[in-house]
Structure prediction request, 586 residues.
Amino acid sequence: MALLIIDRRPEYLGEQRDTTSLLMLPLGSRSYIEYIISSIGADGDVWIAPAFDPSEGYEKSLASLAGSTVKVVDEGGLTDVLGESDPEEMIVIVDAGSCPTCGFSNAATMVTDRKYLGATHVIAVGNGTERARERIIRDAKGNVRRVKRLFHGTSWPHVANKRLAMTFATAGDLAHVSFNSLSDLRRKLGDSGVLQQDQPLSSGLVELRTQEDVLELAEHLMPSAFRRAHHRRYSRRGRHVLVGSDCWIDKSVRLVGPVVIHDDVIIEEDASIIGPTVIGPGCRIGRNSVVAQSVLARDSMVDSGDTVRHLVSSGGQATASLSNHGTNGNGFASLDFDPYDSITGMEGPKLESLPGYQKKVQMRIKRVIDVAVALGVLILFAPLLAIVAVIIKIDSRGPLFFMHDREGKGGKVFPCIKFRTMAKDAHAKQKELYAQNNVDGPQFKMDHDPRVTRFGAFLRASNIDEIPQFINVLLGHMSMIGPRPSPFRENQVCVPWRRARLSVNPGITGLWQVCRSVDRSEGDFHEWIFYDTIYVKRFSLWFDVKIFVATLLTLGGRWNVPLSWIVRSQQHQKTDVQSQSTAQLG
Prediction:
């Protein structure tokens, strides 16, 4: 399997130099070309097709990074080498201007069916089911009435021409086709009659059109620089600083990781390097200078006293005056994010307050308690349940139980069991009643719902309709205490909230039920998100005990208790809660 890489030289890389192109940029502890080649693991030739006019030393510079096996070819040269290759040899085509966030290695492993006779295009459709485009529908008062979302599972063909991660084709298919991008190749292969197929890849795609895109990719690759064994040639200066060989760094230099310093770098006294930053081979950084959140290409120079911030240098002189960026009053440009957060690979705050092993132990104890209590409740209330069942059948036509699909831990769907409290065709009538919905967000609730049966109103008021949910507890679908069980449709409104609440089993009762507003018809969706997130962050058996006691004292949430009774810390304020439901995700 051979590899063909389209190299690019965007305008932000400045003047054309032998060491200037996307493939030559240092990203993490390697150059971009090293990252691509090692990730894909091609065992054949490596051809580089620059989308610009290369200088004489361009091929030599690439070879010094990736080895002498790299060969630069122009359009005519590519036709020649493909013509000399075995027509059935598989060629992997990659555009250096686009990098899948999951890595090239994951994209390459997708194509395992070598029996397919045509070309295969790998399309980056986004990360998981949470990648979507959405439309928020509100009423005249601004309350959210409906959320329509188009998920990648059905929408990925719409981005097939724009988010190509790589292409697999045989040398014979490529021999008589000239192209300058993967989308151009896809179109021309179709015009020439080559069989083609698209395969969706659950990954985002970083398109390196701007300096900000390169900085994003560099930060994304930074954690691997501190994990992988093939970076042992680097020495550590603290937990989040890697230093290559033959470097001279004055003792007075301030290094705030994550920082990766390549070989043969000189940093003079009183300089400050603030991560995430990658300093390429041969760079020279003068005294009293500042380099913050930047990528410096090979042989870049930072003069004494200069500040380089949020910059991708092309080599040579690299300066960016503080006057162009603003300062925080003490000489340093203000940082947009905590550099230590980015090295953890976390997306936002850690959700669990307990250490991992303690959480596992307490979760197992909680499961034992759930099973014991569920068995006891079902046995104790068996006579009552039999009487309720008879009355339901007498009161109205329809099934005894209402079973609705809800999402449990990890998003696994299960049938949530309740006694039926509505007419048989209640779900079909809900669309007609949306205009009378009393709550915001995706849930539906209204006063004097005409779909509720006479006996159903009593069951709801007394919460007897929820007793069959203890069957779900026995089966492991639910727990006694946890977030409210919700269907897939409701969980899609706020993606970070969905990740949090689906990390634990939903519960028959929970923090939201006992602390929400006194008027149960208000149903503030932001309030719901607020309490569910606190529960997941603060989970412990003692926390569950306090919620259970509060449930008994409030008779199942008929009135509320102050959050301060259950959570001592004052750091949780409702004013801090913000819904991300109106954000564009894609």
In short: The chain has three domains: 2-125+163-207, 211-342, 356-576. The chain has a mean pLDDT of 78. The CA atoms of residues 422 and 452 lie 4 Å apart. The domain at 2-125+163-207 is CATH 3.90.550.10 (Spore Coat Polysaccharide Biosynthesis Protein SpsA; Chain A).
